[in-house]
């Protein structure tokens, strides 16, 4: 199947530091992007989204940046906590049918 | 408000058998989508149902099918199971008011022996 260009790397971050998770997408026509968090044994949980007419959006401790020029999306987590340990997925919407295309995920590990 | 529920949580089948998985969306959500999640392929979209009608379908063989009932509960069926069908099957629901936000259930872990 199709996938956004995100293989499954692992990111290790010291507790209290900021985390940055990156994602590349391939379709310049994509107009909506979402970040999900999946903890072990659970389904994905919505974190934050952004539309293509924006380049930055902030939530609680999280910021999503969108660079349409290079088709790049990033998720920044401020003051990373042990509860942030999870696999993070980016997904893009490529059309009016609202069929999300998902990346493979990034595993975030928090070091004490 | 209760979240998306899926049953069963775990299932073991053998090749050639068929399986039916169930999903109950959040109350008031009329759209239900199904995904297959494997370590190598990530989340792959199977299909979406809205008001008992299939709206979208991913690139899966005809062995994968689904349906939605009038109460928005959905089932997916996989016939003639293959080893490669072993995966976590996730169900997600959404409402038209928050059309872009999907809420996921915990998934059903299917193992095919």
- The radius of gyration computed from the alpha-carbon positions of chain B, rounded to a whole number of angstroms, is 13 Å
Supply the number of structural domains of chain A.
1
Distance between the termini of chain B: 37 Å
User: Regarding CATH, which class of chain A?
Assistant: Mainly Beta
Average pLDDT number of chain B: 92
What is the overall silhouette of chain A?
globular
| CATH-defined fold name of chain A | Immunoglobulin-like
Low-pLDDT parts of chain A are: 1-6
Identify the notable features of this structure and list them briefly.
heterodimer; A: 112 residues; mainly beta; Immunoglobulin-like; six-stranded mixed β-sheet; four-stranded antiparallel β-sheet; globular; disordered N terminus; B: 113 residues; seven-stranded mixed β-sheet; 0% helix; 53% strand
Task: Describe the fold and architecture.
The complex is a heterodimer of chains A (112) and B (113). Chain A has one domain (4-111): Immunoglobulin-like (Sandwich). In chain A, 0% of the residues lie in helices and 51% in strands. Chain A has strands at 10-14, 19-24, 32-38, 45-51, 56-58, 62-67, 72-77, 86-93, 100-102, 106-111. In chain A, the strands form 2 sheets. In chain A, strands 1, 3, 4, 8, 9 and 10 form a 6-stranded mixed sheet that branches. Chain A has a 4-stranded antiparallel sheet with strand order 2-7-6-5, with no helix packed on it. With 113 residues, chain B is an all-beta fold. Chain B has strands at residues 5-7, 10-13, 19-24, 31-38, 42-50, 53-57, 64-68, 74-78, 87-94, 103-104, 108-112. In chain B, the strands form 2 sheets. In chain B, strands 2, 4, 5, 6, 9, 10 and 11 form a 7-stranded mixed sheet that branches. Chain B is globular and about 40 Å long. Chain B starts with a strand and ends with a strand. The model of chain B has no long low-confidence stretch (mean pLDDT 92). Chain A binds chain B through residues 1-3, 8, 32, 34, 36, 41-46, 49, 89, 91, 93, 97-105, and chain B through 4, 35, 39, 41-45, 48, 55-56, 58-59, 90, 92, 99-107.
């Amino acid at each position: 199947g199709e996938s956004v260009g995100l293989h499954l790397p692992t990111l290790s971050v010291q507790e209290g530091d900021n985390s940055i998770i990156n994602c590349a997408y391939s379709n310049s026509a994509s107009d909506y992007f979402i970040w999900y968090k999946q903890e072990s044994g659970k389904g994905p949980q919505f974190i934050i989204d952004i539309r293509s007419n924006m380049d930055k959006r902030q939530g609680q401790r999280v910021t999503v940046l969108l660079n349409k020029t290079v088709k790049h999306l990033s998720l920044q987590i401020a003051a990373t906590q042990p509860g942030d340990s999870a696999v993070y997925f980016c997904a893009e919407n490529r059309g009016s049918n609202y069929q999300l295309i998902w990346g493979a995920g990034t595993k975030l590990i928090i070091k004490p | 408000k209760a979240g998306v529920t899926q049953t069963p949580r775990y299932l073991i089948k053998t090749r050639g058998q068929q399986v039916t998985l169930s999903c109950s969306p959040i109350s008031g959500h009329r759209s239900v989508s199904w995904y297959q999640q494997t370590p190598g392929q990530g989340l792959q979209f199977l299909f979406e149902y809205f008001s008992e009608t299939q709206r979208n379908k991913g690139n899966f063989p005809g062995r994968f099918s689904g349906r939605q009932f009038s109460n928005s509960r959905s089932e997916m069926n996989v016939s003639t199971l293959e080893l490669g069908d072993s995966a976590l099957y996730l169900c997600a629901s959404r409402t038209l008011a928050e059309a872009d936000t999907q809420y996921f259930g915990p998934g059903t872990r299917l193992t095919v022996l």
